[in-house]
């Protein structure tokens, strides 16, 4: 522990001296303007003024202190895997899909580099190699390519891998077998029963969670993000013909569509989704004013965090924080998102999440240097 703090002080001094910290302070988030998260700060190294660097370094120092404290940092916990030990990753996605956004948030937060392959949602040629026909799909280019399906499986496998000292990716993935079952409409679906569970031994569990309750809480809210929060998105962003058109304008702009395809997708897609969203509203028993369900979900989430901690994970976000943020982020720039910010209690948490997502890559790089 003492050596960690000494290392931290050395690191901060080196960063100040070299001016090598990218900006970690974030201006007040401006909603209604799309924010590119990507690899925050890369390429801006060494170009900041001294005062700016010092401020950023201090922010990083504070963040590191919180991080180490919140992780109950100890010699045993330090043994977790470094991101540069992770194989090359390729994410097959639709940019605006909430499940894909969840995975990107997870990878960005942990500073794991990955290639993106944007899939054309009409032909889906890019995932022709796969029997599993949904996105996200993550390919880990290890000795043999390993395909991981389902956002929550991907996140659990990768998080287990980062925390685990002995298991390799193939072994961890084998603990998440797919199972065919039938949904309420009798349609065959693939499910992964234990997808919210990290495969950790006792020591790793202690490092990751501290208490049993925090592990159970994380699982509960990760499931909630998939089973409830996600289902509020479509009814809200396609609520009116005007909103449906704005949503499809965004989807076509951000997604991979041919010219004519894009034109049809925008107008036909918007009209279709306007009607589909009404069906989804009935299927999930939403209120007539679907915004009310969205606001309530946000307020339930904020209530679960409570007043004593900034994130559900404590001083740092846990997998549930990352999942909820990933899901909601796809609505940014749309009317539903602005309404959500002004009519629910979510905004302070959301701003903190944005800030932590900006800081996380620098934080994880700094932690690597500490080890
Ligand atoms: N449970 C899956 C759900 C993935 C999913 O439903 N993805 C949608 C896109 S948001 C999809 O690929 N649908 C099939 C299609 O577009 O044809 C996960 O968490 O990854």
TrEMBL record:
Broad class of where this protein is predominantly found: membrane
PROSITE patterns linked to this entry: GLUTAREDOXIN_2, GST_CTER, GST_NTER
A GO biological process held by the record: prostaglandin biosynthetic process
All residue ranges annotated as the GST C-terminal domain in the record: 250-370
GST N-terminal domain boundaries: 87-171
One GO MF term: prostaglandin-E synthase activity
Reaction catalysis annotation: prostaglandin H2 = prostaglandin E2; prostaglandin H2 = (12S)-hydroxy-(5Z,8E,10E)-heptadecatrienoate + malonaldehyde
Gene3D superfamilies in the record: 1.20.1050.10, 6.20.200.30, Glutaredoxin
EC number assigned by the record: 5.3.99.3
Any one cellular-component term (Gene Ontology): endomembrane system
Keyword check for Cytoplasm: no
Location(s), subcellular: Endomembrane system
Protein keywords: Fatty acid biosynthesis, Fatty acid metabolism, Isomerase, Lipid biosynthesis, Lipid metabolism, Membrane, Prostaglandin biosynthesis, Prostaglandin metabolism, Transmembrane, Transmembrane helix
InterPro entries in the cross-refs: Glutathione-S-Trfase_C-like (IPR010987), Glutathione-S-Trfase_C_sf (IPR036282), Glutathione_S-Trfase (IPR040079), Glutathione_S-Trfase_N (IPR004045), PGES2 (IPR034334), PGES2_C (IPR034335), Thioredoxin-like_sf (IPR036249)
Pathway(s) of this molecule: Lipid metabolism; prostaglandin biosynthesis
Highest taxon listed in the record's lineage: Eukaryota
Membrane topology recorded in Swiss-Prot or TrEMBL: Single-pass membrane protein
Family to which this protein belongs: Belongs to the GST superfamily.
Protein name: Prostaglandin E synthase 2
Protein's gene: PTGES2
